[in-house]
Inverse folding.
């Protein structure tokens, strides 16, 4: 016979509360930044002032994209049953110097190819 439990499966932890607070801060910045940089209509200096707003909003969007990418990376590692990032770093430190150099050059080549792909996509 199964007994029903009235406890919820998810209990808030310190980490989840921190994530929610960070999300609230990002949303507050996103919605209050236009109010801070707001100027009267018809001002010739309005374009120059809107550059600051664009920088703030771009920074917020960049941080959100980085957090989502980090979350997706961790989910992918869990789904593929691979070790975590910390374990991978420890394994990297156990490699010989020549193997570390080869991995470094491989990553550099990947970054160069990614940069070329971005430039080609922009053009």
């Amino acid at each position: 016979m199964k007994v029903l439990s009235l406890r919820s499966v998810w209990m808030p932890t310190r980490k989840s509360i921190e994530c929610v607070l960070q999300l609230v801060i990002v949303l507050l910045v996103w919605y209050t930044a236009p109010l801070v940089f707001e100027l009267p209509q018809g001002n010739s200096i309005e374009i120059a002032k809107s550059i600051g707003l664009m920088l703030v909003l771009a920074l917020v969007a960049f941080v959100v994209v980085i957090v989502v990418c980090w979350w997706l990376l961790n989910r992918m590692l869990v789904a593929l049953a691979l070790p975590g990032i910390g374990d991978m770093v420890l394994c990297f430190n156990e490699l010989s110097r020549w193997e570390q150099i080869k991995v470094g050059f491989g990553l550099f080549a990947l970054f160069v190819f990614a940069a070329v792909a971005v430039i080609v996509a922009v053009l």
